[in-house]
Write a structure and sequence with these properties.
Elements: H1 21-30, E1 34-39, H2 42-51, H3 55-63, E2 67-71, E3 76-80, E4 84-89, H4 93-99, H5 124-153, E5 160-162, H6 165-190, H7 193-220, E6 231-233, H8 236-260
Parallel strand pairs: 1-4, 5-6
Antiparallel strand pairs: 2-3
Helix pairs in contact: 2-4, 6-7, 6-8, 7-8
């Protein structure tokens, strides 16, 4: 009946990976452009991408670029000017190959990869005894991060994170050096122009990722403080630690790439 009320708008921050492209767009649009995909099996997202490819959404969201969708059913336009989408997945190397069909399509370089080798001497008793403690530990950490997020959200204005100029110059040189090193490495190992372009993409986007992680580390220093200044400066420890981490991530990206080609 035309007198029936409209269905209530559902705001869902955690978006199921097993979603259609229209549902994915709708969930992000309803939640002010924000969303989180968190799956323990990477092929859950891979199967969803195979049914209705929305990899362009994932690539655009990495840079906060506008996303839009025309829905024929309700003659409705969905438009998100600045999407913020985070994805955290775990899985096997085979699942990674299923998720990212090509290492050269741009999606590969937007992920951080970390390869973990299982310990052979890990027993079920270790998992049971330590599992409860680990669950409690991370639950408490999550609550503290949530509180920091709520404090930042309640502010009338955002917080400006400043990087000293020498850090920015160092970051550019760091990214350029990685680009040259891995372009040469990929050229020798794979002998294709596509591989060289992939190495350049990985190194450039690693620069963006380093910038973001350093900002997050800077803000986490205020996790136990009620008064957060309007301007904060990235310190030396946070910047250099992030640079050190990125060199590890680059090596793991190389391992992941090698398993895909």
């Amino acid at each position: 009946s035309s007198n029936l009320p409209d269905a209530p708008s559902v705001h869902r921050f955690v978006i199921p990976a097993n979603s259609s492209a229209p549902s994915m767009y709708e969930d992000i649009a309803k939640n002010d452009g924000r969303g989180l995909i968190f799956e323990t099996e990477a092929d859950t997202l891979a199967l969803a991408l195979r049914r209705g490819d929305f990899s362009d959404l994932l690539r655009k969201a990495f840079h906060g670029e506008p996303i839009s969708l025309r829905r024929k059913t309700h003659q409705e336009d969905l438009y998100v000017p600045n999407p913020y989408l985070s994805i955290c997945l775990s899985g096997t190397p085979e699942q990674a190959r299923t998720l990212i069909k090509s290492a050269e399509n741009g999606l590969f370089s937007r992920f951080l990869f970390y390869r973990i080798t299982a310990e052979e001497n890990y027993s079920e008793n270790d998992l049971f005894e330590d599992g409860r403690a680990i669950q409690l530990y991370f639950t408490q950490l999550g609550e503290k991060v949530r509180d920091l997020y709520l404090k930042l959200q309640s502010r009338s204005k955002g917080v400006e994170v400043i990087f000293p100029r020498e850090y920015l110059e160092m970051l550019k040189a760091f990214t350029d050096d990685f680009g040259t090193e891995y372009s040469n490495l990929f050229a020798k190992a794979y002998k294709t122009e596509k591989a060289v372009n992939a190495a350049r993409s990985i190194s450039r986007r690693m620069g963006v990722i380093v910038f973001r992680i350093a900002m997050i580390r800077t803000m986490l220093r205020y996790i136990d403080q009620d008064d957060i200044p309007s301007t904060v400066v990235c310190n030396e420890d946070d910047f250099y630690d992030t640079l050190a981490d990125s060199s590890v991530f680059m090596q793991h990206a190389h391992v992941a790439y090698d398993e895909m080609v």
